[in-house]
Amino acid sequence: MDALKKLQWFVFGAVLMSCLQLWLRRKQTGTDLGCSNPPPRIYDRHSSWLNVPKIWREEMERRVKHMETVCRETTHSVDGSSARTGFPPMLYVDDRHRLIMCSMPKVGCTNGKRLLYALTGNVDMKSFHNFGSGKKVVSYKRFLPRLSQYSPFGAKLRLETYLKVIVVRHPLERLVSAYRGKLEGKGHPITGEAIYIAKRFETNPTPGMLTGKEGVSFQAFIDYLNSLDPNKDYNNHWESYIRLCDPCQIHYDVIARLESQGTDLNMMLKLIGMDDKLTYPEGDLPASSSAVWKKYFTKISQSDIRKIWQHYELDARLFNFTLDWY
Ligand SMILES: *[C@@H]1O[C@H](CO)[C@@H](O)[C@H](O)[C@H]1NC(C)=O
């Protein structure tokens, strides 16, 4: 009788314990998905850099050192960061791979963003190459967090530990690309600005120009830019890197140049341990190659070019672009 009672108590105890355990486990995993499942920490500031070829690493060091030197020389004249409160608008965050990328319009931006969408896991990796049409990219915008959306502490923590990447191209090449995409020919999307430019800067505007059905001339576009106050915000498509990506505040680790973006971005994928899952297309250069964009400036006077250059001079110096071809 005594032994039976002991057994009963034992069984009762065992059942109680396992119930308690089940309840506890459920409490841990069921309710708080975010905290019990920390993101994999793939990028590491020290060890990740051992995975990339020395020659590329040294090239990045050269570019970064050059940028930092220019930043130090010009701290007083750079007002991009001091004029703005908070972080620049174009910094996108990928928490899964510890990546911060400044992806701005007209720097192979659709491709860069496509890559980020794939990395954040919001787009099927296999279809990321086909994930191309502008509209779709825009509709996915909300899945791509910006650094400015984080708390000051969260943003600072990420800036200190994540890989920071900026993609750059010659400022004047970027202008041509923006002009071609937004103001040249028919069916451009920024009608309001085009009409304004046609009215104020076109010597013989056509009816199509004045109603926004037709784009404006490159000369009118340049005159328009030269009339703007460089200390005020431009349209993002021709805003300076200083304002969009604030290089002197962010201290980028990787400066990818458009001429070498295939190599540079594939090395970036290596740094975050994703090179076996994704490949950035090597030959994927945007439409305006060197010969094409330079042709746009052949009809622009030297003094107009010098003037427009002043708006982008610091951008150019930071990333070692010159006017020497002109
Ligand atoms: C800057 O560009 C010049 C040629 O245009 C090149 O010789 C030099 O190495 C570059 N500097 C850096 C830091 O990349």
Which descriptors would you attach to this protein?
mainly alpha; binds 2-acetamido-2-deoxy-beta-D-glucopyranose; 16 helices; 4-stranded mixed sheet
Explain briefly what this protein structure is.
It is a single-pass type II membrane protein. This protein is mainly alpha-helical and 326 residues long.
Description of the structure:
- The chain is mainly alpha-helical.
- Helix content is 51%, strand content 6%.
- The protein has a 4-stranded mixed β-sheet with strand order 1-2-3-4.
- Helix 9 (191-201) packs across helix 11.
- Mean pLDDT is 81; it is low at 29-36.
- 2-acetamido-2-deoxy-beta-D-glucopyranose is lined by residues 62-63, 66, 320.
Main beta sheet strand tally, sense and closure: 4 strands, mixed
Provide the list of bound ligands, each named once.
2-acetamido-2-deoxy-beta-D-glucopyranose
Number of domains: 1
* Number of helical elements: 16
Order of helices and strands: HHHHEEHHHEHHHHHHEHHH
Percent helix: 40-55%
What is the oligomeric state here? single chain
Kindly state the number of beta strands.
Answer: 4
Give the strand order of the largest sheet, numbering strands 1, 2, ... along the chain: 1-2-3-4
**Rg computed from alpha carbons, rounded to a whole number of angstroms:** 26 Å
Cα-to-Cα separation, first versus last residue: 105 Å
The pLDDT mean sits at 81
Strand percentage lies at 5-15%
Sequence stretches where pLDDT stays below 50 over 5 or more residues: 29-36
Structural class: mainly alpha
Form type? elongated
InterPro entries: Carb_sulfotrans_8-10 (IPR018011), Sulfotransferase (IPR005331)
Protein name: Carbohydrate sulfotransferase
Organism: Lingula anatina
Subcellular location: Golgi apparatus membrane
